[in-house]
Amino acid sequence: MSTFQAPKGTYDLIPPVSATFLAVREAIAAPLKNSGYGYVETPGFENVELFARGVGESTDIVSKEMYAFETKGGDKLALRPEGTASVLRAALEANLHKAGNLPVKLWYSGSYYRYERPQKGRYRHFSQVGAEAIGVEDPALDAELIILADQAYRSLGLRNFRILLNSLGDKECRPVYREALQGFLRGLDLDEETRRRIEINPLRVLDDKRADVQKQLVGAPMLRDYLCDACKAYHEEVRELLTVQGVAFEDDEKLVRGLDYYTRTTFEFVHDGLGAQSAVGGGGRYDGLSEMLGGPALPSVGWALGVDRTVLALAAEGVELDIPPATSVYAIPLGEEARRKLFGVVTELRAAGVATDFAFGGRGLKGAMKSANRSGARYTLVAGERDLEEGVAQLKDMESGEQTAIALDTLVAEVTRRLG
């Protein structure tokens, strides 16, 4: 065994499981690529202040879970705990909003880091695919992103997920609700830390998962009763657009999400087969975040879907993805001359787009055939001295067992034809 192991709360992605993760990432990205979203990739670490401003200093993410450190040069950096602040920072820095084509549509895929208590579905290193539409306030844009996520999940075969939907109001109506909620919460029997949260971001108290807290929240003021007419109309249009497109959702008046930057539309994708960590993804509108980061007013909306939890959701539903074998042809040389000849054929097959592997290490036929079976290859290509003298190689169909001698000069064309 190795002296070292993966750090606590992290994991290694290795074959064959890694193929499932790749397939999930590609399935989530596919609808985005088809809807005008361009790929963006940001550094794995950013200035601490970016997340303190954008995510919110009162959030658990910033106050408890962020991996922050100081460099030798004195810079205060943090491993990115989420994607939106980084993507918006990159868009602002590159002046993408000035190109005249709003919204700026971006998607991303990567690893994120939070110091949390490890458990199934919650890791200190996790993978997400996300999407952001920057610079336009339009209910159709909110609906588009929810629909694209719904399409991605359904393309994977997931069915038992639910979409929770709420509105958090805006800078006009939320302060009035905030004051009413604070008045209610101050009268409850809560611990010191939760009381501190009441003064900083009372909406997040509604998201507290503890049963004793939820019991006291019965009768709390509801945001829907404080929404201004503009927010009500906006939210109703989002709901109508989803309904017309046949996307089912549930209104959840307590849904606030864990980040300070959300305004108006907020949503979450949950899967009841995952236990406590039921959220597989979520997002919402964040109209004021650009200004928090020192940029112009750029109303925006986005989401992030957890790759790890999506894989767990697939397992919970018993969905097995149709992932093609990594190898279509496995070449086995018998002898040194055949080794040189087949290595050239393997190179040609790969150049022609055929996934091909080679029996390295000079193993005998029996051992090499076992490797061919384990590779999942559809065809095995075998050649010995006699075959070379005749100018052929033996092509064996691993499903039917049929073996055919194929002329070496037509081998690439024949294999390509058979694989279709």
Account of the protein in words:
By secondary structure, the chain is an alpha+beta fold. It has 15 helices and 16 strands. The strands form three sheets. Strands 1-5-6-11-10-9-7-8 form an eight-stranded mixed sheet, sandwiched between helices. A hairpin with a 7-residue loop joins strand 9 and strand 10. The chain is elongated. The two termini are 43 Å apart. The model has no long low-confidence stretch (mean pLDDT 92).
Give a quick summary of the entry.
The protein is 38% helix and 21% strand. With 420 residues, the protein is α+β, with helices and mostly antiparallel strands. The protein starts with 16 loop residues before the first helix and ends with a helix.
Q: Report the portion of residues in β strands.
A: 15-25%
Give the biggest beta sheet. Answer: 8 strands, mixed
Average the pLDDT over all residues and give the rounded result: 92
**Rg from Cα:** 27 Å
Strand order of the largest sheet: 1-5-6-11-10-9-7-8
What class, by secondary structure content?
alpha+beta
Task: Tell me the helix content.
Answer: 25-40%
Number of helices: 15
Overall, the morphology is elongated
Give the end-to-end Cα distance, rounded to a whole number of Å: 43 Å
Strands, count: 16
| Uncertain segments | none
